[in-house]
Structure formats: C-alpha cells, structure tokens
Amino acid sequence: MSALVEIMDSTLDIHRLQFAFTITFHYIFPQLTMGLALLLVILKTLALHTGNELYNVAMRFWARIFAINFALGVVTGIPMEFQFGTNWAAFSRSAGGIIGQTLAMEGIFSFFLESSFLGLLLFGERRLGRIGHWVAALLVWLGSWFSGYLIVATDAWMQRPVGYSMGPQGQFVLASIWDLV
C-alpha cells in the first residue's frame, strides 16, 4: 500500500511540475500581449492624427508580433484550465463554482472580444476604413486588459477569498459577484 502511495505522490508531483512549467512559460505572453495591444492603439492613433503612413506600417508590423504572441498565449493557456482539474481536483471541486466564474468571463468576454477584433485588425483594414480599423485596435486592447483583470481577480480570490458562503457539502458558493470581481 505504501508503494502505491509513493507512486501516486511522485506522479502528482510530476503533474504539478508540468503545471509549474506551463504557467511559468504562459506568464510571459499575457504581459507582452497587454503591452503590445496598447502600443497598437497608440500607433494607430498617431497614424490617424498625423497622417504619417509610417505609423500604420509600424502598427501592422507589431500587430503580426501581437498575433504570434496571442497564439502562443492561447496554446499555453488552454491546458492550464484542464490542469486545474487534474492537478488540484479537490480544490477545483470545492472552489470551481467561484473561480470558474472569472475564468469563464475571461474566456467568453475578453478572449472572444480580443480574438474577434484581432482578426479584423489583421485582415480588415481596407474594409473597415481608418476609423473602423482604429476601433478594432482599441477593442483588442480593451479585451487584452479586461482579460488580465479577470485573471488577477481569480488569483486575488485564491489569495484572499471574499463574496462566498459555504455550501452543504463544504464547497464554496458564490454569494456576491461584485465582491469577486
């Protein structure tokens, strides 16, 4: 029996080590995405206000870098959601009803806002016109920053839980969405 426990402990340790690698690698991309999104808005705004095409050229260049970075963030971020359930099943079972709220909002609102308008930013410049293209850049920026906010709100709740009550089976139940966010 103790050999089985040792194997399970080492397997769990390996899975958690993999999660540590995934989250450490992933952590690079949201930071860069948030900074680049703001840069895209600034460059597009300068292009509109000055009429200097070099700002548009620079914006298109950094938009491609943003897209690559965004894709890498997605590829490393999606497995983390599954790893919460596989590596911390007891935590996910008891707190998933709360942290699932902010993670779902991040996916549904922020990610889709950011990814939809990133497509328009990359491929719709001629169809959108100058102002529409600027709006696409602005919404990419808002999506990336809202995404970051919701992830920080999730982590903040894990560090200092608020806005919850305890359910009948000892699980956390969301009592106030406003306290959570």
Could you characterize what this model shows?
The chain has helices spanning 2-50, 53-87, 89-123, 125-159, 177-180, and strands spanning 164-166, 172-174. By secondary structure, it is mainly alpha-helical. It has a two-stranded antiparallel sheet with strand order 1-2. The N and C termini lie far apart (44 Å). The mean pLDDT is 88.
Short description:
With 181 residues, the chain is mainly alpha-helical.
Number of strands: 2
Rounded Rg: 20 Å
* Spans of at least 5 consecutive residues with low confidence: none
Spatially, the strands of the biggest sheet line up as 1-2
Q: What series of H and E elements makes up the topology? A: HHHHEEH
Shape: elongated
Structural class: mainly alpha
Instruction: Assess the beta-strand content as a share of residues.
Output: under 5%
How far is the N terminus from the C terminus? Answer: 44 Å
List the helices and strands and how they pair.
Layout: H1 2-50, H2 53-87, H3 89-123, H4 125-159, E1 164-166, E2 172-174, H5 177-180
Antiparallel strand pairs: 1-2
Helix pairs in contact: 1-2, 1-4, 2-3, 3-4
